[in-house]
Each structure stands twice: as structure tokens, then as C-alpha cells.
């Protein structure tokens, strides 16, 4: 019994604050204010999502994807409020990992920390690959063409080459023709084509060096790039508005709700980043006051920009043309504004760099915090005596992100990023319910507004079931056509969603839970049901590897075990 309970041993807020200030070479430099945090948040959020994945989401869902941005933003607001309460209660690095340690105990803390490592690493791989595409496009605008085999991964190129052989060149898009040509012209060792995305690897190396040197330098670089980035987005919205053709907004949802929701991973990826602010809590001058403000400001600013830019993109060209990696530049090219497309390509390179910077800041600080607790090797918590950054963890992050970015394709990573993030968000929302229930929130300078969900959670569940039975006949028919094995394979998460809602209805009635964290859990869980099962399999394998490391190293060496 003792061994079992030790898996859920918890740290007090006082313990965490003490550990943060007693690390090797002291703590981190406290220099960030509200403006810096908002800048870092926007740097992370307005990144590869708006400059690349927004095109794919619009292609699948049409103009109605703008509503999906609003729905996803609402889910993020519930989560951001929960993050803000935790950041106010536990103002140290570590993000959801640290919060889980306080609320649920060590095993859950390890699981969420391991999931966050995946989130930040995979996010940065996507951002680095997207940066490379814009960078190569920008160089072409200046008349510089890099060899194709140095700018693309082998899987994408070989698939394009195989498609060309089976269907012919005429059936390939311009990008597929480029990829097939790169595969044909690549140097070979025997039958193996040597191909790598060199720009993605180099930019990761340079950003890692900047993050290693210090938070002050990173902050300055981020602030400059964010001003430029917001300027570009506003330029697209204002200039593009003059070329909007209202007929392009009809039909508004050409593929129905299913088409809109198929863009969940891409749209949600566009919002991932606001939680990265919480990893810098220890370098914040007044985290209890500034963290909550920064998170809410970021989400409001970015949601307005996203909705406007989606409406402009789908208004300038038909949604069926937006399946491209650089949609912002593309829509201006289609309208004969090559100069504007060039400005956007150059600016996009700088804008996406800022997102890369923030993620590369976040991951080493999670490793550092886990190492302080004894769950990872001691070297991860080493603070550089001169630069006051987690030096070893930063270098490892560079390798973990840079090497896969050299060789893998972006599509694979986008969905996988969302799996880890949804998982973290749900635990943070659930953690706030625990803090409130145990009275720990009493010391927080910011708390999620309390709205009693005693009856409301259950009433909304009944309304949802009635609504589904009346208006969801198509959904019910889909389920009826599936065998039991197919339901388990494809609909298990949906079943878990409804069971969770029922359980939360009972617990809300019993414990007077606040409706906002409950809404955060349910909206994130619903969005999770829209992701593919293959992503969950990979995520489960990742968690299994993490548990092996925990039980072979962290469980015995945890500071709470000493």
C-alpha cells in the first residue's frame, strides 16, 4: 500500500518555491514583464499555424473554418484561465508538469512532463520545416535556388516520384513536381537517395545558440520579430480586404460540420503556444499578477487576427485552391500582386523564427524542472553561471528538434503535437478543480471565476443527448453501421467523452465544481475525439517509453523518495 501511494506523492507549493531558489548556480534571471510575456505568447501562437497549416484547414472546411477558430479559442480560454491560476499559485518554471505535481502527484507529473517534452519538440520540428519552405521560397524570389535534395525530406520526395511514375507529370502539383525532381537528381549511395532539409537543421542550430546565450537576448529578438509579424498579418488583412469576392464565401461550409472539424488539428496547432508562457514563470518579475493578464491578452489578440485572416484568405480565392504550404503569399500571387507575395515570404521567415524561439525556450525549462525533482539526470538542471540559462538541457533540445527536422515530413508531426497538448490541457483544468476542492487556491492572487456547476453540468448533458437524438440522425446512423470492433477502434475516445461528462455531472453535483474548468476539460476532450487513432497509438508508445525511464530511474531518485 505504501509503495502504491508513493507513486502519487505530492509536492507542496512551499517545497517547489524552495527548490527553484536552491538550484545549482542559483535561480534564473527575473526580467520579464506583461508586455514581454504577451510578446512571447504572440510569438509562439502566430507562427507556423497562421503561415502554413491555416491553408489546409481552409481547404477542408471552407470559410466556416473561421468559426472553428472561435470554438477552439473558447476551449483555449477555459484552459488559459486554469493555467493562469496555477501560474499564480506556483510561479516557477515547468508549466503543466509542476502543476500536476501539486494537484495529482508524482506519477501524473511525470506523465504530463513527458507529454510536454513531446509537444514542444514536435511543435518545433513542424515550425522548423515550415520555416524552411518559406526560406527556400524567399531565396527563389532573390534568384537563389538551393539544390532540391538539400531542402526536402526523402519520404515526401520519394512519394512524389512514385506518383509521377504511375500517373505522369501532368497529374502532379507544382510542389510535387519539384519534390519528384529533387528525388531524381539527389546524390546516391547505391539505391539510397541522400536527402535532407538543411535549412530546417541550420535554423534550429542558430536559435538554440541564441536561447543558450540568455533570456534577455531572446526577449529582445522576440519583441522585434513580433512587431514585424503583427505588421505583416495586419497588412494581409487590410490589403487583402480590397480583393475579397463575397461569392467565394458561398457555400460557407461546403463539406459540412465534418469538413470543418477535420481541420481541428491544424487549427488547434495554430493556438498552441499560449501555455509556453507558463514555462518562463520563474523569469517573470511578478508572475502572480502578470501571467494571467498575458495569457488572456494573447488569446484575444490572436483569435481576432485568425478569424479576420481566414475570412480574407477564403474571400480572395476559392477555398479549393488553398491546399498549399504558404497560403498567405499564395493568395496575393493568385491576384497578380507578386510584390505583396514577396514581402509576405520575407516577413514570414522572420515571423516563424520567433515561434521557433519560444518553443526552444520552453522545452529546456521543463527538463530543468524535472531534473531538479530528481526525475531526470542532474545535468539537465545545471544553470550556466554566466548566461543564467539551463545550458545542458538547451543543447540537448537543439539535437532533439534539429535532427528529426532534417529528415522527416511536417504532416506526420502536426496531429501528434495536438495529442500531447490536449492531454496536458485536460490535466491542468482538472488540477484547478482539485486546488479549489482542497482549498489550496485560497493563496492564489488570480483564480478562475467561480460559476457553480452543481446542476448546470448535468442539465447540459441531458440537453446535449436530446439534441443529438433530434438533430444527429446522421451521426446515429454512422454508429449503427459499425461493428463492435470498429466502434472500439474508431469511436473509443467519443465513448470516453460521454462517460467523462456523466462522471463530471455527478461530481459537480456532489462537490459544487466550477463550470469553467469543467468546460475546459470537456471542450479539449471533444476536440481530441477528432484526431486520428494512429496518433494515439504513437502517443501511447511515447508514454510507455517514458514510464520505463521513470520506473528505472526517476522513481528511486526522486527528491520526495529520499
Automatic annotation (TrEMBL):
Keywords: Membrane, Transmembrane, Transmembrane helix, Transport. It is found in: Membrane. Its main location: membrane. It holds the Pfam family AA_permease_C. The chain crosses the membrane at residues 37-59, 65-84, 96-117, 192-214, 226-244, 256-274, 294-319, 339-362, 387-407, 413-435, 455-473, 479-504, 511-529, 535-553. Residues 515-558 form the Cationic amino acid transporter C-terminal domain. It is a multi-pass membrane protein. It comes from the Bacteria. PANTHER family: CATIONIC AMINO ACID TRANSPORTER 4, INNER MEMBRANE TRANSPORTER YGJI-RELATED. This is Putrescine transporter PotE. It comes from Dyadobacter linearis. The gene is potE.
Amino acid at each position: 500500500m505504501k509503495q502504491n501511494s508513493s507513486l502519487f506523492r505530492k509536492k507542496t507549493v512551499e517545497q517547489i518555491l524552495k527548490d527553484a531558489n536552491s538550484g545549482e548556480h542559483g535561480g534564473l534571471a527575473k526580467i520579464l514583464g506583461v508586455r514581454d510575456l504577451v510578446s512571447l505568447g504572440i510569438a509562439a501562437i502566430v507562427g507556423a499555424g497562421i503561415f502554413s497549416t491555416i491553408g489546409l484547414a481552409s481547404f477542408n472546411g471552407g470559410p466556416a473554418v473561421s468559426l472553428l477558430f472561435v470554438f477552439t479559442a473558447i476551449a483555449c480560454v477555459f484552459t488559459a484561465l486554469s493555467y493562469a491560476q496555477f501560474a499564480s499559485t506556483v510561479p516557477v518554471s515547468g508549466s503543466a508538469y509542476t502543476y500536476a505535481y501539486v494537484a495529482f502527484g508524482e506519477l501524473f507529473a511525470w506523465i504530463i512532463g513527458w507529454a510536454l517534452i513531446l509537444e514542444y519538440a514536435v511543435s518545433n520540428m513542424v515550425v522548423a520545416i515550415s520555416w524552411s519552405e518559406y526560406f527556400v521560397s524567399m531565396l527563389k524570389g532573390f534568384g537563389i535556388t538551393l539544390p532540391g535534395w538539400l531542402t526536402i525530406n526523402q519520404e515526401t520526395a520519394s512519394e512524389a516520384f512514385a506518383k509521377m511514375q504511375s500517373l505522369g507529370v501532368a497529374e502532379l502539383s507544382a510542389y510535387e513536381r519539384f519534390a519528384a525532381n529533387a528525388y531524381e537528381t539527389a546524390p546516391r549511395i547505391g539505391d539510397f537517395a541522400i536527402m535532407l532539409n538543411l535549412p530546417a537543421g541550420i535554423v534550429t542550430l542558430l536559435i538554440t545558440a541564441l536561447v543558450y546565450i540568455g533570456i534577455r537576448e531572446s526577449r529582445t529578438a522576440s519583441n522585434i520579430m513580433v512587431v514585424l509579424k503583427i505588421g505583416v498579418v495586419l497588412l494581409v488583412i487590410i490589403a487583402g480586404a480590397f480583393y475579397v469576392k463575397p461569392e467565394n464565401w458561398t457555400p460557407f461550409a461546403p463539406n459540412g460540420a465534418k469538413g470543418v472539424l477535420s481541420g481541428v488539428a491544424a487549427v488547434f496547432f495554430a493556438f498552441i503556444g499560449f501555455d509556453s508562457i507558463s514555462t518562463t514563470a520563474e523569469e517573470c518579475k511578478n508572475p502572480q499578477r502578470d501571467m494571467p493578464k498575458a495569457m488572456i491578452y494573447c488569446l484575444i489578440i490572436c483569435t481576432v487576427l485568425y478569424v479576420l485572416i481566414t475570412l480574407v484568405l477564403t474571400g480572395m480565392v476559392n477555398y479549393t485552391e488553398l491546399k498549399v504550404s504558404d497560403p498567405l503569399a499564395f493568395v496575393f500571387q493568385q491576384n497578380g500582386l507578386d510584390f505583396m507575395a514577396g514581402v509576405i515570404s520575407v516577413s514570414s521567415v522572420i515571423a516563424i523564427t520567433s515561434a521557433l524561439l519560444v518553443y526552444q525556450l520552453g522545452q529546456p525549462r521543463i527538463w530543468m524542472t524535472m531534473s531538479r525533482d530528481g526525475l531526470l539526470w542532474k545535468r539537465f538542471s545545471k544553470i550556466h553561471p554566466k548566461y543564467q540559462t539551463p545550458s545542458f538541457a538547451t543543447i540537448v533540445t537543439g539535437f532533439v528538434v534539429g535532427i528529426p527536422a532534417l529528415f522527416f515530413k511536417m504532416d506526420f508531426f502536426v496531429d501528434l503535437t495536438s495529442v500531447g497538448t490536449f492531454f496536458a490541457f485536460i490535466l491542468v483544468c482538472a488540477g484547478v478543480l482539485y486546488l479549489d476542492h482542497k482549498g489550496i487556491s485560497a493563496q492564489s492572487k488570480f483564480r478562475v471565476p467561480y460559476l457553480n456547476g452543481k446542476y448546470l453540468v448535468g442539465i447540459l448533458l441531458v440537453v446535449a443527448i436530446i439534441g443529438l437524438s433530434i438533430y444527429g440522425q446522421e451521426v446515429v446512423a454512422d454508429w449503427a453501421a459499425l461493428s463492435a470492433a470498429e466502434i472500439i477502434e474508431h469511436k473509443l475516445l467519443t465513448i470516453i467523452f460521454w462517460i467523462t461528462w456523466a462522471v463530471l455531472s455527478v461530481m459537480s453535483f456532489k462537490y459544487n465544481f466550477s463550470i469553467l474548468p469543467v468546460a475546459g476539460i470537456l471542450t479539449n476532450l471533444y476536440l481530441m475525439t477528432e484526431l486520428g487513432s494512429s496518433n494515439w497509438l504513437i502517443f501511447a508508445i511515447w508514454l510507455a517509453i517514458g514510464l520505463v525511464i521513470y520506473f528505472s530511474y526517476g522513481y528511486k531518485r526522486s527528491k520526495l523518495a529520499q
